[in-house]
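Hey all, quick one. A colleague (J.T.) asked me to put the zinc ion job into the tracker so the inputs and the structure tokens live in one place instead of scattered across chat threads. No bug as far as I know, just bookkeeping. Sequence used:
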Amino acid sequence: MRETRIVPEFVTSFPAELEPGHLYVSARFSTAAHLCACGCGREVITPLSPAQWVLTFDGTVTIWPSIGNWALPCQSHYVIDRGTIKWARNFTCDEIQLNRESDHRILDAVPASQGRWWGRLLRRLTGH
Ligand SMILES: [Zn+2]
């Protein structure tokens, strides 16, 4: 069954069994996890960073950009907006490919393994 609401759970590490309708947020690992909102029961992991997903908490939880589960059989696509699951249309194969390419461009620009000057520059740019 499709979820319509999701509530945040702030945790240090994720439990072995995730509950549907909960978004587990680990500040320590800068990662969020939830069960796919379509009800297929697959775990969806969203790394949180300015280049990946950005999480906002105001009593409810928002994650941006949308979550596209292209790697899952369900290929579901939704936005978590103030604790509400907003269903988006499924992308076509071409759109999925484009999305993946642009994701890679962003991530390739700042590989985690880069030298120290990159890290310093990034921290200066992002204010972290
Ligand atoms: Zn699913």
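Adding what we noticed when we looked at it: DSSP finds two helices and eight strands in the chain. The CA atoms of residues 19 and 35 lie 7 Å apart.
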